[in-house]
Amino acid sequence: MGQDPASPATFSADPGPRPGEDRAGDAAVPGPRVPVAASELVVPDIRLIRKRTGGEQRATFFELFFDLVYVLAVTQLSHHLLADLTWAGAARTAFMLVVIYWAWNYTTWMANWFDPSTVAVRLVLVFVMLASLLMAVAVPDAFGERGLLFAASYVALQLGRNVFVVAVTPAGAFHRNFVQILAWSVLSAPLWIVGGFVDGDARWAPWGAALLVDLIAPLVLYWIPGMGSTPTSQWQVDGNHFAERFQLFVIIALGESIVLAGATASESDLTVAVVVALGVAFILSTALWWLYFGQVSEVVARRIGRSAPTEAGQLGRDVYTYLHLPIIAGIVLSAVGLELVIAHPHDELHLAGALVSCGGPALFLAGLAACCARVRRHRAWWPLAVAVVVLGCAPLAAGIESLTAMGALAVVLVGAAAIEQARSD
């Protein structure tokens, strides 16, 4: 996406897999990419759009800088759940995670097309960063006194970013797409603001309706009466850059789990049990990294990278916009479980702690399986079987020493990572 429409040759046919690239157990990537004629490309050829030369696009340093705000946001979410480890606290944390991820996700789509090295785009991203920072600061009391700050920050970044795109793009399919995206943002905005003014749990009604509007919008292709929908064939993303950006968000979440584990250990008496618990936490986080980056991220990225620009948008929506949510949520839950074990290695987890400790990896594995199934990877659903086993062990883990339970869980995840690695050998 973002190719110069005057240069259709940059979307030439893919030569197909290199020898040895499609590893054992992986579905072969569909045949050569079909060249896309200039008339089929909808991204305008303007100065603010990324210029493609046919090579692989990489994340820019400014995009990495942008992500730093979301390191704070993920940390705030973990702390919020730790402070209120109840069903109500989990629901509020999950809700805010989806909102924060949605803000980052939409900005990633925008930055896949627009060049962050241009001053105008960079200033828009700085504005989104500031709004995201305020939203992250509001997380601990978003269902309390800071509700309006949380909602207004989200609305400001969503509307501001989309208004910018509509304002700077010429008439055409791309411009119309963003007009419809903006319309859906405008539709949910009053619900967010109204929710910021009401108290406590009364926010669930307007905020729940607002988030539902935002989540449904891509599924119905931003359909507007009289204008119709925006076909996914017109969401022409650069697949390699798009995949890399979401891989980096997974790194953010994994990094936060290690930071939280280390910070908890440093604030505790460094007994033998705490040191062992820290080691188990590190091994478990490493196993999660291995399960995602060992092969899966490459298989998924290769699939979307080789897709025609007219198909990459639909894959990007399904795999990254939606199916990466349980992966990120699973890492956040796992981080909370690890903190509980490091802080209290000899205590029982009890049901709440066990559900967090086992539910995090289970949710992560389920998201991984769904992503693999979406790109038609061979035997894609085997991580789901592991997830069911892990979650089913939660009642057992609730009644034993937390360090023992987490050690057993780490062994299971290391075994799953070994199985995943063996598929490439």
Describe this structure in words.
It contains 14 helices and no strands. The protein is mainly alpha-helical. It folds into 2 domains: 170 residues, no CATH class; 184 residues, I/LWEQ domain. It is globular and about 65 Å long. The N terminus is likely disordered.
Assign the CATH class of the largest domain. Mainly Alpha
Return the average pLDDT rounded to an integer: 86
Q: How is the CATH topology of the largest domain named? A: I/LWEQ domain
Count the DSSP helices.
Answer: 14
SSE sequence, one letter per element: HHHHHHHHHHHHHH
Query: From the 3D coordinates, which CATH architecture of the largest domain would you assign?
Result: Up-down Bundle
Tell the overall outline.
Answer: globular
**Whole-number tally of structural domains:** 2
C-alpha-based Rg, rounded: 22 Å
| Overall SS class | mainly alpha
Characterize the main sheet: none
Show unreliable segments.
Answer: 1-39
Strand percent estimate: under 5%
Number of strands: 0
The percentage helix is: 55-70%
Distance between the termini: 34 Å
Descriptive tags:
425 residues, mainly alpha, I/LWEQ domain, 2 domains, globular, disordered N terminus
Characterize this entry briefly.
By secondary structure, the chain is mostly helical. It contains 14 helices and no strands. It starts with 60 loop residues before the first helix and ends with a helix.
Walk me through the topology.
Elements: H1 61-83, H2 87-113, H3 119-138, H4 147-168, H5 173-197, H6 204-219, H7 239-266, H8 272-305, H9 309-322, H10 325-343, H11 350-374, H12 382-392, H13 394-398, H14 402-422
Helix pairs in contact: 1-2, 1-3, 1-7, 1-10, 2-3, 2-4, 2-7, 3-4, 4-5, 5-6, 7-8, 7-9, 7-10, 8-10, 8-11, 8-14, 10-11, 11-12, 11-14
